[in-house]
Each structure stands twice: as structure tokens, then as C-alpha cells.
Amino acid sequence: MATLAFVTSNDGKLREFGQMLGVELERVDLRLEELQSLDTAAVATDKARQAYSVLGRPVVVEDTGLYIDAWNGFPGALVKWLVKSVGLQGIVRMLGNETDRRAHAKTSICLRYGGGTRLFEGTVHGSIADSVRGTSDFGWDPIFIPEGMSNTFAELGHEPKNAVSMRSKAVAALREFLDKNGVSD
Hints:
The chain is an alpha/beta fold. It has helices at residues 11-21, 40-55, 79-95, 153-156, 158-164, 166-181, and strands at 4-7, 25-28, 59-68, 75-76, 102-113, 116-128, 144-146.
């Protein structure tokens, strides 16, 4: 199989994704218009369409969102912008004394290639911590606690996190597809 173009500007995503997928990826940093939507599937699909039209070869685009139940799913795919704007402590503070801290994290991976478009998703249910916990250079890991656990993703560390993460579930589905079908330009 040819090297897949993984469209991202996020080194953390590239590292995690490559480790989980087990195939050679070429990081491509394209300046694409990002659809403003809470829905990670819509964002990933639109960016994959744009990237494929620019590159003319198989591309993979990933988008991950954090959906907070008390906020009707906000920020979803817009979480990166919320974190940039108010920070992780700001999100915790905005939840305040909210008793419903349930949330879910969802990864949508879109593969666009000569044979069409395929979407692969993974979801992890959990909650938002009442404080920023753990050290991580990766997004909102210090505030998300996966269901059935007491530690945030950041407190778990890379390997334990990758074993249960939404990204690992979506990547496993992509890997299964690639193993069975491969891709063509």
C-alpha cells in the first residue's frame, strides 16, 4: 500500500495516529477551510474532500470533539477553539457547580481515495473533571475522565490512554478496512 497522506498540523495527532495505525504516514499540512460545525464527521469529511482535490491521492483526515452533555453537546468539534479562547481551567470554571458533568469524546476519521470516501468513528463516554489534572501536551486530556476510571486521559499516560481512547477505536476500524481493502489513487 502506498504511503497515506495524513492531513494535520498537530504533531500530537500524527504521533498517536501513526503509533496506532501501524502504517507509514506522510504528514501534510494543508491550509484548508474548516467547516464550522459541532459534528466531527462533517468536519473530517469536508476537509478530506478538500485535501483529496488538492493532492489527488489517498488522504486521511481526523477530527476529534468533546461533547459536554450539560451544554447540549457544545463544544463538539469546536473544542480546539474553546481551549484556545478560555483554556482548560476556563472550561472547568464555566461548568462551575454543574452536577451533570457527563461528556463524550468522539473521533471521526475520513479516508478519501480513488474508490470513494469512508468514515470511521470511535466514542468514549466519560465526564469532565472538576480541575485540570495531569500533564499533557495534547488538547483537553487533562480534563476528560473516561467512564469507569478516576484518572483523566493526561493522568493515564500515552499507552494506557491509547488502549481505551476514541482515537484508538476509530483507528482500529480504519486499520481493519485497510487490511482488507487497501486503497488506490
